[in-house]
Amino acid sequence: MQISYKNSQIAFHTEGQGDAVVFLHGFTGSMEIWDAFVLDVSARNQVLVIDLPGHGKSECWGKVHTMQDMGSMVKEVLDSLGIERAVIIGHSMGGYIALAMAKLYPQLIAGLGLFHSTALADSTQAKENRERAINLIRRNHKDFLIQFIPELFAPDNRSMFSREIAYLIAQAKQMTPEAIVAAQKGMMQREENLEVLMNVPCPVMFIAGQKDSRIPFDSILPQITLAPQAYSLTLRNCGHMGFIEAREQCLEFIKAFIRACYNTPLA
Q1: Region for 7 from its dihedrals, namely left if φ exceeds 0, alpha if ψ lies in -120 to 50, beta otherwise
Q2: Cβ atoms 106, 200 nearer than 8 A
Q3: pTM for this one?
Q4: What is the pLDDT along the chain (267 residues), one digit of tens a residue?
Q5: CA-based nearest residue to 27, from 188, 224, 210
Q6: Which of 57, 71, 89, 211 could form a disulfide with 113 if both were Cys (CB 3.0 to 4.6 A apart)?
Q7: What are the two backbone dihedrals, phi and then psi, of residue 175, each rounded to the nearest 5 degrees?
Q8: Contact, 27 vs 92, CB < 8 A?
Q9: Is the CB of residue 192 less than 8 Å from the CB of residue 36?
Q10: What domains, with CATH codes, occur in the chain?
């Protein structure tokens, strides 16, 4: 399925019936990363997955894809399906978008899930790192992806998940350099959203990897204390890719979180 947004085609898929759950992928990913989650969660819920702009089958619409713009795009998809309330779960960049949506459309959010994500803005050092990454992407985006994607996994997990890493790299190589840069610039410009965590009128979920090279584990613990109703899962031997590195553990935790958001019984 597709909708038009900013004169670009945005691809999405929905499955199941019931209370709505939205899964948003991260930087260089696609809706396909959620296949196992969609299959399981859709047994009880309506599940929506989307290819973010420039990712998967969705088109790039500009030089910068801000978190607010992408959040507005997700809202357009929800409106097209008649969904007025949903649990929004975002991996990495998807979590930044979920936070932007919670700020823009608080009445829409039944639950906010930060899956290897953070409410902090980029530090000065992180922005400098993104600038260096952008220069590398412009020179040779495929070399960037070959280096970048394996580093998302905990060092001990890279050989175990070599096939998954190769698949993620192959999928990401289909992106254009312009789309990769637009996402990097959008993340670099994002706002701090700690206030959203403090004021959000719904449960908040945190999944954090102790060996995450992108979202420092120590930076997540203080954020958990800010949310009035927080659910947290710590993955001891996991990097930034819990949906692969600890799939079953994450899936069961997410299903419990969804039930808590909608106050639904176990069976």
Answers
A1: left
A2: yes
A3: 0.97
A4: 999 999 999 999 999 999 999 999 999 999 999 999 999 999 999 999 999 999 999 999 999 999 999 999 999 999 999 999 999 999 999 999 999 999 999 999 999 999 999 999 999 999 999 999 999 999 999 999 999 999 999 999 999 999 999 999 999 999 999 999 999 999 999 999 999 999 999 999 999 999 999 999 999 999 999 999 999 999 999 999 999 999 999 999 999 999 999 987 655
A5: 188
A6: 89
A7: -75, 155
A8: yes
A9: no
A10: 2-262 (3.40.50.1820)
For residue 95 the two structure tokens come to 């979590």
Q: How is residue 195 written in tokens? A: 């206030």
Phi, psi of 139 (to 5 degrees): -80, -45
Fill in the amino acid letter for 59. Answer: E
- Tokens 């203080």 sit at which residue? 222
Distant-in-sequence, close-in-space partners of 206: CB < 8 Å, separation ≥ 6: 114, 220, 223, 224, 230, 231, 232, 233
Tokens standing for residue 75: 């809202």
